[in-house]
Amino acid sequence: MLGLESGRIWVGILGHISERKNPDLIIRAMLGLQCGEFGLMVAGSMTQVVADKCEPLLRAFQDQGGAVVRIDGYLDNETFDRALESVDVTVIAHSNEGASGILGRSLAVGVLPIVAGPPGLKRYIRNFPASLTAPLSIEGIREALLKVKSILPAQPIEVSGADDFFEQLIAR
Asked: In what order do the strands lie in the sheet with 89-92?
């Protein structure tokens, strides 16, 4: 764990942060909230195009009372796991279909995922009570973040190993 400021709901954007993950959309959604109740961890490598879009939004979020923690660059497995286990929520806001290791890892460790975007990822979490889906929009993500308070804390999935985890994820 990274010892983030307590008393806030910490949202994570983790991994290789490209336009596909829509971090600017997530930050814009958070700007409409009571920012003092939330913190945002942005951890991982970020393309320059995305950084240029996100930096002014992150400053605005901080100016409105939000907390921001940055871990820039490649995350080894240990650092990634510590970052993930430190947040309360991950927002998976992919703009196209494709796998999300962050989704599976979030469910495995009890971090509540909000899945916005393609229906394929939403299908995987539809029966997990500690998860939310949202339209891929500022309002959709904002509404899901407002629901988080009534769901936290999320609980990890009880599994006996990797095969059992995969079976639970796919079977649902």
From this structure: 67-72, 38-44, 9-14, 89-92, 112-116, 132-134
β-strand pairing of 9-14 with 38-44? parallel
Domains of the chain plus CATH, in order, are: 9-171 (3.40.50.2000)
What residues in the chain have per-residue pLDDT under 70?
1, 97-100, 121, 123-129, 153-172
Give the angle 106-111-116 at the CA atoms, nearest 5°. 70
Phi, psi of 76 (to 5 degrees): -70, 170
Name residue 39's beta-bridge partners: 10, 67
At 83-98, the pLDDT tens digits run 999 999 999 998 776 6
Predicted TM-score of the model (pTM): 0.86
